[in-house]
Write a sequence for this structure.
């Protein structure tokens, strides 16, 4: 396919969020005619922005995609490096758990600012246009048409060679694919919801150590704080919905925080806490898996539309960005042949994206229930030592995920195997015998080592 034919190809990207706008840049760079249809108004001029403001953790995988379109340095300059978790115990004691070596870190990034930068990048391409206030009504994928409803409330049919669904966890494009034969779909809401609070600057500086992801784990409750460039922290409280529903007044909220997160009250401010808690209701979190990610050569899903995941590994955006990068690499490899690229994209990405979804679900359990454990911290220290001694042979799971793409099947097997071991350890107490550092603990307690795990059949 020569460049003139490629230029004639029309692509409709549904959704102008993070993955949709990044995808538009990749496709426009390949000389496709790209039209992005975004249901919301332009967030760059909107007085009030709807949707999540929850901070994002940008890691190696997401940075590689930004690098490919020349935006990495710009975006990285707006982020705050986080080199470790900082665990806040109930007593107020703090313990740091590094993500890896001193050179390894993730970046706390503003979702809104990142989306604005990506939209600006799209508009620099003369062959790309973003249509705000345009909602997708229906797809006729076999005929290559979609119907959108604009601000004039008049449905408009649009012809395109490829429809790219980047319209989030509640994707309209995916809803149409679900009607196709052999399209598998599953979803799971976790019992927890979340609300957002703010820890403001103190005396013009950060109120806590800025280069950490701060965690207050409390078994069924958990709070996480990420630093912002303006010296504040975005603080997210996670807990079961029924617990949110018990707190009806400002006094209830303060009593709850005094019991579970006492050291956070002076950081947030008692008055602000009692008010801000009620600004928005608790939001749900959903995990979605589907297969395939494409329909023939006409349609493909990316980002949350294909694989929404819970946020506890901080890899939802990074996985979505990696979708864009992998698809672009396949387009390069197969000379923009959509009939080959789309099936290859599904074959290549589904195992990786499902694996990161499972790992995120496990980390949801680990972060709220395990990180306060002495043995958990001891285990992480052992992992760090082994990684320092054998950096190429032993790579801690979190370090592997945030610093490397899951491009090779061997990596997938390694991560999947590690996940299964840890997962079953959390469900069956004696399964901890499967990991060497827990053999030591078990030996200390029992004075013996057994290689047989009773009850595991």
């Amino acid at each position: 396919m020569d460049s003139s034919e490629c230029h004639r190809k029309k692509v409709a990207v549904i959704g102008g969020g993070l993955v949709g706008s990044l995808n538009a840049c990749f496709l426009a760079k390949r000389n496709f005619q790209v039209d992005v249809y975004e249901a919301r108004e332009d967030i760059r001029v909107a007085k009030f922005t709807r949707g999540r403001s929850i901070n994002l953790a940008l890691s190696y995988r997401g940075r590689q995609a930004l690098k490919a379109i020349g935006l990495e340095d710009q975006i990285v300059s707006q982020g705050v490096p986080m080199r470790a978790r900082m665990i806040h115990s109930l007593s107020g004691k703090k313990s740091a758990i590094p993500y890896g070596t001193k050179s390894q870190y993730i970046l706390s990034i503003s979702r809104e600012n990142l989306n604005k930068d990506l939209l600006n990048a799209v508009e620099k391409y003369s062959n790309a246009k973003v249509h705000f206030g345009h909602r997708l009504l229906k797809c006729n994928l076999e005929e290559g048409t979609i119907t959108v409803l604009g601000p004039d409330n008049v449905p408009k049919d649009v012809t395109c060679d490829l429809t790219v669904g980047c319209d989030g966890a509640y994707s309209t494009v995916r809803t149409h694919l679900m009607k196709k034969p052999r399209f598998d779909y599953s979803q799971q809401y976790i019992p927890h919801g979340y609300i957002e609070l703010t820890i403001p600057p103190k005396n013009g500086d950060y109120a806590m150590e800025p280069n950490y992801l701060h965690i207050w784990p409390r078994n069924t409750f958990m709070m996480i704080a990420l630093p912002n460039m303006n010296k504040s922290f975005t603080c997210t409280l996670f807990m079961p919905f029924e617990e949110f529903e018990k707190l009806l007044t400002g006094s209830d909220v303060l009593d709850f925080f005094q019991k579970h997160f006492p050291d956070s009250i002076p950081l947030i401010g008692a008055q602000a806490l009692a008010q801000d808690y009620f600004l928005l209701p608790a939001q749900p979190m959903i995990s979605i898996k589907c297969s395939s990610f494409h329909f023939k050569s006409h349609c493909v899903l990316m980002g949350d539309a294909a694989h929404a995941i819970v946020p506890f590994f901080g890899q939802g955006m990074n996985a979505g960005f990696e979708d864009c990068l992998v698809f672009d690499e396949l387009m390069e490899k197969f000379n923009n042949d959509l009939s080959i690229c789309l099936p290859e994209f599904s074959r290549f990405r589904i195992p990786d994206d499902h694996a990161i979804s499972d790992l995120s679900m496990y980390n949801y359990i680990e972060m709220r229930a395990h990180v306060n454990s002495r043995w958990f911290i001891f285990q992480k220290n052992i992992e760090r030592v082994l990684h320092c001694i054998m950096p190429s042979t032993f790579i801690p799971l979190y370090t592997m995920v945030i610093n490397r793409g899951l491009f090779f099947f061997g990596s997938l097997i390694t991560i999947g195997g590690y996940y299964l071991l840890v997962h079953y350890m959390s469900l069956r107490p004696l399964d901890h015998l499967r990991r060497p550092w827990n053999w030591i603990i078990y030996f200390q307690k029992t004075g013996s080592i057994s290689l047989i795990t009773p009850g595991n059949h």
Remarks:
- Residues 338-369 form the longest helix (32 residues).
- The two ends are 55 Å apart (CA to CA).
- The first strand starts at residue 10 and ends at 14.
